[in-house]
Amino acid sequence: MTPGFLGGMALLATLVFSLVGLVLCGLAQWAQDRRYLEAARRVAPMSFLAALVSFGALEWALLTHDFSVRYVALHHSTKDPLWVTLVTPWAALEGSILLWGTLQTMYTWLVSRRVDAGGASAAPVLDPWRAPVALGVLFAIQVFFFAVMVFVAHPFDALPNPPADGRGPNPLLQNHWMMAVHPVLMYLGFVGLSVPFAYALSAMVARRFQSWIFETRWWTLVAWGFLTAAIFAGAWWSYEILGWGGYWAWDPVENASFIPWLLATAFLHTTQVQERRGMFKPWNFAYITLAFAATVFGTFLTRSGVIQSVHAFADGPVGALFLVFLLGVLGVGLGLLSRVSSEVRDAGEVRWKSREGALLAASLLFGTMAFVVVIGTLWPLVVEALSAAKVSIGAPFFNQVSAPVGVAALLLMGIGPVLPWRNTGPQIRRNLFILGSALLAGTVLGLLLRLAPGASLSLGLLAYNLCAVGLMVDQGVKERSSSLGISRWKAFLELASSSRRRFGSHIVHVGFALAAVAIAFSQTYRFEEAKTLRLGQRWQSAGVELTLRKVGLEEQGNRQSVYALVEMRAVDRRGLWADGTYITRLNFYPQMGNQGLAAPDLKYTPYNDYYLILQAFDTERGEWATLKLVVTPLVLWLWIAGAIMALGTLYILWPSPQPQRERAAGGAPA
To answer: Is the dihedral of CA 93, 95, 100, 104 positive or negative?
Structure first.
């Protein structure tokens, strides 16, 4: 048996299992017979297992250098390091779709375990009235992906005359280990949003509009957490690899990952109002439909070839299929919402000076930003299609829009949690005064330090949000300490343990505010300069002195690497912590000919990042090199902020300890 044969058969088996599951779910819904639902549940792990076998077969083909498989011949080489070989399945179109499909079967299997199909579970999470549709939607998504692979983009297509060696993957994918992590995180987030989408459709079909919002909280947070981690990981990869010293360029594919995150964030805010007051049902159905559709839109952009991007690793024949799938997702989701719109319309009035008003305003900001990013991403394509003219919408447009939206979001983020539900109370004046004072103090401090207005405002907003978190925690601790007669420290520990959602959201908000500071400073005070140096020559710039010590050549298995060894030392306070030896490289891969791929060397510090890029060199004697120095403040804090947001999400998801009285009674938590 060959890997290609095994993988192809497993792929076909997954498609068959997915179709069987879809049909069984349809019968369960039509006949209202739980036996069909139970059978569908049993099919879910089979499809997951078959998909795993298919994915494993692709790894097997790569590890054994089986170049009779076209994918292996096109995207793998015997010279690839082991870690590159292991991550090659998501280096191109067919393997990426296989990864998506495999993760989709995993999520379907996990959801199937939450279904009570006849009293098997003591605590059903997905009721049998909605389960057939929810599981059916997930099976239908599987059918799409595995049908695409079986009929259009088969990962195990055979080559009649296999080469002795392959071409290797895209060099951008093998130039940094982060590419082993970033795509997987992104797909876990993308695919994860299919679960709340499926629950939403099932709720609209069954006309049971409330319980799904509680059941999908965990799934949505998981998907949102993976998306957040993926966006920060992608920005880090861009910063370390692309050799321009930046981390976000509003590239179309970067935007495609940002849009689902914005819509999922909007959804997370309005779900709190539905949980608490039963309001905003139409908003939640619309947001989760658009968020999942945006993941398909992102895949369409990445894999269709309609845009040019450093992240667009394929231009295969699946673009039209993904466009049809995208329209289908939007048509089904928004069509069902239109059908039940009169039943889910809010009966109550939204008071803007209340917590639900702030949450709705925040969700509208995120939704508006998503709409702007979609327009800015697609506008060049629309203009080109209508007039054949080439236009571009670059970072200045997105920055001009995102800056005021970001400031408004940070303001709402601070004030929203301190507002009471339904209406304002007398204590809000005191809280507003404290928050306003913190905002003013932070901003004025920045201005006194002669910082730019934007950087000063970011400091004020950080102080404002830290103050808001402090007020919320202090209020909760006081109430608990007073009502239970315990010390404030004990009340704090108990509250942090029992109210993980509240404390986790505080942590996420702090991370978001810290990220805003890092972005404001790194965008305002970024410095770059380039100079050609001869061996031993010194160059002073931006508070540091650089000395070129050596230009050399290294053979590194699958590539050649030209490097420049540079010593750097600080000459004034702007160069704080810059001292060290830097080795910056240009890597040459066989696929890229004479075009080198930059591998900058950089030093992270809490103050500045020192980023050195080799741009050109003496090809004959190695006696000179052209270096580019980029000094950017506070970038390290951006990665710390991303880690804080991920930890906050993890804290929310972490199971709360069982209450003591329930442990004593041997009961399950409510």
So the answer is: positive
pTM exceeding 0.85: yes
Look at residue 670 and tell me whether its pLDDT is greater than 50: no
Q: Which two tokens stand for residue 621?
A: 């004697």
Facing residues of 612 across strands? 601, 629
At residue 564, φ and ψ (nearest 5 deg) are -120, 125
- 273 Cβ partners below 8 Å, 6+ apart? 279, 280, 356, 359, 360
Q: Which of 120-124, 364-368, 382-386, 480-484 has the lowest mean pLDDT?
A: 120-124
What digits encode the pLDDT tens for the residues 123-149? Answer: 546 777 889 999 999 999 999 999 999
The maximal CA–CA distance of the chain, rounded, in angstroms, is 83
Q: How confident is the model at residue 424 (pLDDT cuts 50, 70, 90)?
A: low
Q: Which residues contact 488 (CB under 8 A, 6 or more apart)?
A: 477, 478, 481
Over the stretch 633-651, which tens digit does the pLDDT of each residue have? Answer: 999 999 999 999 999 999 9
- Return the closest-CA partner of residue 481 out of 494, 469, 472: 494
Q: Which two tokens stand for residue 223?
A: 């998907």
What Å distances lie between residue 232 and 205, 223, 294, 481, CA to CA? 37, 14, 19, 38
Distance CA 142, CA 22 (A): 9
> CB under 8 Å to 569, separation ≥6 — which residues?
544, 545, 575, 578, 579
Q: What sign for the dihedral angle of Cα 29, 33, 37, 43? A: negative
The sheet carrying 608-617 orders its strands as 527-534, 624-633, 608-617, 601-603
Residue 661, pLDDT score? 46
Joined together, the tokens standing for residue 633 give 């403040």
The Cα-based distances of 253 to 194, 232, 310, 638 in angstroms read 20, 14, 8, 20
Enumerate residues 6+ apart whose C-beta is below 8 A from 565. Answer: 548, 549, 550, 551, 552, 581, 582, 583
Angle between helices 281-304 and 182-192 (to 10 degrees): 140
